[in-house]
UniProtKB/TrEMBL annotation, chain A:
Protein name as annotated: Protein-methionine-sulfoxide reductase heme-binding subunit MsrQ
Domain Ferric oxidoreductase: from-to ranges: 45-155
Co-factor note (free text): Binds 1 heme b (iron(II)-protoporphyrin IX) group per subunit. Binds 1 FMN per subunit.
Gene Ontology molecular-function annotations: electron transfer activity; FMN binding; heme binding; metal ion binding; oxidoreductase activity, acting on diphenols and related substances as donors
Biological process annotations from GO: protein repair
TrEMBL record, chain B:
Binding site for Mo-molybdopterin: 80-81, 135, 170, 219, 224, 235-237
Note on cofactor: Binds 1 Mo-molybdopterin (Mo-MPT) cofactor per subunit.
EC number assigned by the record: 1.8.5.-
Subunit structure: Heterodimer of a catalytic subunit (MsrP) and a heme-binding subunit (MsrQ).
UniProt xrefs under PANTHER family: PROTEIN-METHIONINE-SULFOXIDE REDUCTASE, PROTEIN-METHIONINE-SULFOXIDE REDUCTASE CATALYTIC SUBUNIT MSRP
Family in the record: Belongs to the MsrP family.
Molecular-function annotations in GO: metal ion binding; molybdopterin cofactor binding; oxidoreductase activity, acting on a sulfur group of donors, quinone or similar compound as acceptor
Pfam entry (one): Oxidored_molyb
Gene that this polypeptide is encoded by: msrP
Designated name of the protein: Protein-methionine-sulfoxide reductase catalytic subunit MsrP
Domain of life: Bacteria
Organism encoding this protein: Methylomonas lenta
Amino acid sequence: MLFRINNAWIVISITCLLPLFWLLLDIMNNNLGSNPIEAIHIRSGDWALRFLCLTLAVTPLQTMTNWRGMADYRQMLGLYAFFYATLHLLGYLYVDHAGLWSMIGIDILQSTYIWFGLVAYIIIILLAITSPKVAKKRLGKYWKKLHRFIYYAAGAAIIHYFWQLKGNLFQPLFYLTIIAFLLGFRALVWFKNRQLTRLMIPKGKKITEESNDAV
Amino acid sequence: MIIKTQKSIPASEITDPSVFQQRRTIIKAMAATMLLPSVNTMASVTKAKPHWTNLTNSELSGQFGPETPAEISSNYTNYYEFSFNKEDSTELAQNLQTDNWSVEMTGEIEKPGIYHLEDILSQQTLQEYIYRFRCVEAWSMVIPWVGFPLSAVIKTVKPLSTARFVKFTTVYQPEVMPKQRINAMLDWPYVEALRMDEAMHPLTILAVGMYGDVLPKQNGAPLRLVVPWKYGFKSIKAITKIEFLKRGPLTTWNQFAPDEYGFYANVNPSVPHPRWSQFSERQLGSGFFTPRRETELFNGYGEQVASLYGDMDLRHFF
């Protein structure tokens, strides 16, 4: 089985679907403004990026609060990031481009900002495919290495965001700050652990850094 | 003898009859607002009669099918002086002071001076021009402008043969334009320019209205330029100054990012913006799952304007 289902799991997964319900409600009420297709792109993209940030925030929050329960939901948050990114991509392909592949091809070739979006999506889809326990077991030590690519996905997604704007960079910079903070926190933890290990282990003995590496 | 049992109502508290007579409309509007949260905030209670009723349609108007609904085009404007958000400008622009508007015309002309907008308008015949409006952000609208040819105004100030470029400047009102006040992003006030032959082209108009009504403030009231074969940012809003120059001036977006926004900014599907394609455009008002429109060279006005550019390399002079 993929997940351990309990009450908290149900509550959290419904909460994660609220942005989708909210978007559908706004579509039905014609409440998305003058360019509703653009609004759908922005909403779904924003939520994909927010869920990426949330996924990345789980480990640092655990370290800070010492509350261990959250790690169980990290996989789910990551899959929701994949879910909203998929909606974002489908919105681009079908809601906006009506599945006209010749036009889509030209658009992708000529739009560099879309390249970064695609890179982010390819990484996220790989992580989603390898997210079940079976895949984790099979991949062994490579699983961790592969899933560290989530940072590249977040970076590419932020470039994808700001590369299409005409100059007002407030929102992408906001996400960049969050990602930089989360990444910085991990670097700090990693560095501190390394120093502690050095102090604890008698001189002359080799340190294996891998084991102290928190993801 | 009259015995007053109640305090009489002071005259100031008496409801104005014009308000009272609207009570049904007001109640209906309130009910409608509650029922339909989607109703546009700009939608007026009663559809007022348009400001101009017997405008003739210019022969330059295109046959584009349905016009973009006014609720869409008046709530989706790039007016960076007010906001970087297209829908926020609608409300913010209402603070713009447009009374007693005048336009300064200077430079290489025989009759420089400050001209009152009323005086300019009194010499012009207004017509309706239905043009396609294509933004550099790859969306488009079809808008029935009310205006007159720029060339007609230029003739009245008698340009000298040395006048080769026309420079336009948007009003500077930092007290009501937040981005001017904090000096955000662009170099204010906003400046645009045309080559003299582009400015004299019959398609180039100065607009004072749209949909038969006075131009909404967020759409560039009281006077804006419309150059339909160029990307929208060339069509400068709230013009207060027109200068006739010997040399091409620096224009706002061109100065901000010269490799992304050229001086000419002619609509051209085969010259992509460095970061996105210009091959297709989303027509505002079209539904979900409807294909985008293939963008045309010179926004479909090639027959009329291609000769202006002769054998110029449009990739170089983008």
